[in-house]
Design a protein that fits this description.
single chain; mainly beta; 3-stranded antiparallel sheet; globular; binds zinc ion; C2H2-type domain-containing protein
């Protein structure tokens, strides 16, 4: 973890304006992924590049179904 760069980023759902936060982790390898809104199921964020996101969770409420990792959603 010492040489890992983490950045907290915030997103809002384009459909219902629900706010989310996720942690961006820089990688040497290319990653792709996406996050969907837990309220309306709209795609809130997609990425493709040398970074990955995890820790995706709503800011206003935290449903217990959200674990520490939310990866590989297509
Ligand atoms: Zn939404």
């Amino acid at each position: 973890m010492a040489n890992t760069v983490w950045t907290i980023e915030e997103f809002s759902c384009p459909s219902c304006s629900m706010n989310y936060t996720a942690t961006r982790e820089e990688h040497e390898a290319r990653h792709t992924g996406s996050f969907k809104c837990s309220v309306c199921n709209a795609v809130v964020h997609t990425w493709s590049g040398n970074h990955h996101f995890f820790g995706w969770e709503p800011i206003k409420a935290k449903p217990p179904v959200f674990g520490r990792r939310w990866a590989g959603v297509r």
